[in-house]
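Re-run with default settings, no changes from the original entry. Doing this only to confirm the output is reproducible before filing.
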Amino acid sequence: MAHYADSSFLVSSYLTDANTVLAKAWFSRATVPLIFTELHVLEVRNAFKLSVFRGFLTAAAISTAWVEVESDLQSGRLRKTTLDWHQTFLIASRMSEQHSAVNGARSLDILHVASAKMLNATEFISFDNRQRTLAAASGFRVAP
């Protein structure tokens, strides 16, 4: 069994925002590791850096947060997973054709759900309504 969280959920787990309490509560109850791909590395690190740019956090604060991410990778709470990006983009293209005109999914929304599909995840964790809708339509159990 594998669980896939989008980057917004992960960012809320490591930085403080409106969803942090819910993210940390879900994460503390998790019995399986969360998948962590190259897409997560890019998006989470970029979100951390953007919070410095926007004046919400200091460079020291995001450095501490990234140490927590690395600690969770080492402990197994996050599981570093490599994707076949060619196949993932094929799945994403099909999802776009089937769902974007109906639910307004953006490219990164689709890539996250396609990544979860490619990795045979059973649960999709997100605070983003478009991703949650797409994930449900793609057969995932959606949390939180």
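The CA atoms of residues 34 and 78 lie 5 Å apart. The chain has one domain: 3-143.
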